[in-house]
Amino acid sequence: MAGSAVIEEQKFSLQEVLDTFKLCLSENQDVYVEHYVAGWRGLVKFMNSLGNVFTFISKDAVNKIQILVNFLNGENGSHYVTIQSMVKYELDNQLVDLDKRGSHPESGSRTLLRLHRALRWLELFLERLRTSTEDSKTSVMCADAYNESLSQHHPWVIRKAAGMAFCVLPGRPTFFEVMNVGGAEKVVDMLGDAVPMISKVYQITEDLYSQNNLLELP
Ligand SMILES: CCCCCCCC/C=C\CCCCCCCC(=O)N[C@@H](COP(=O)(O)O)[C@H](O)/C=C/CCCCCCCCCCCCC
């Protein structure tokens, strides 16, 4: 009994990860950095379970997550509780390199922008997955979502490497299995809940960055 309880605890569930993203929004529609990075951490775990070929992608995500966690746990952590307070604090105190990389190459605002762009990829990919059929290819869905979003911010060499990684993505049945949600119908239901919520977090962040002219931070 105790043994099986331990095994249950260790099971990875994408539902839990997506629930973390649900915690991101405060009553005022501010986005909590703590839950945002926790959501990404879960996604990285999921990606790592797909194989070593994705390590170069997860390393970059882990690095960015860590930068944000360091700010959150640092002496000015209270300013990093939400994305809104982080942006305000960093802009008010000239802590962001706005035009070219300078003395603040790893500000919270520019670091989060990289994850924010990746969130758009995730939103597009999950929507494709939700509406996919049994014979749909995850590699194609992933590449299409990437080409429509994140790729526009990546140089040729990264686009090439990402394209190669997509080719070795497991097929839809394995993918659904690793998600550990249940049968295909359950996956579709879960994605039906998850996609609008991810879209909302994405849009609130996008509006904030757009209003502050931060969408092209170097
Ligand atoms: C139900 C299915 C769930 C899907 C779960 C997906 C899990 C995805 C987990 C993590 C995604 C990785 C996020 C990558 C963040 C990339 C940030 C970025 O753009 N970084 C570049 C720019 O940074 P700076 O140089 O300006 O600091 C950096 O150059 C990137 C390097 C790594 C390559 C990034 C390729 C991104 C491909 C995204 C698709 C991931 C495919 C995973 C498939 C499951």
Automatic annotation (TrEMBL):
Biological process, per Gene Ontology: negative regulation of interleukin-1 beta production
Any GO molecular function: ceramide 1-phosphate transfer activity
Segments traversing the membrane: none
Catalytic activity field: N-(9Z-octadecenoyl)-sphing-4-enine-1-phosphate(in) = N-(9Z-octadecenoyl)-sphing-4-enine-1-phosphate(out); N-(hexadecanoyl)-sphing-4-enine-1-phosphate(in) = N-(hexadecanoyl)-sphing-4-enine-1-phosphate(out)
Residue stretches making up the Glycolipid transfer protein domain: 32-180
InterPro entries in the cross-refs: GLTP_sf (IPR036497), Glycolipid_transfer_prot_dom (IPR014830)
Protein name, UniProt field: Ceramide-1-phosphate transfer protein
Encoding gene per record: cptp
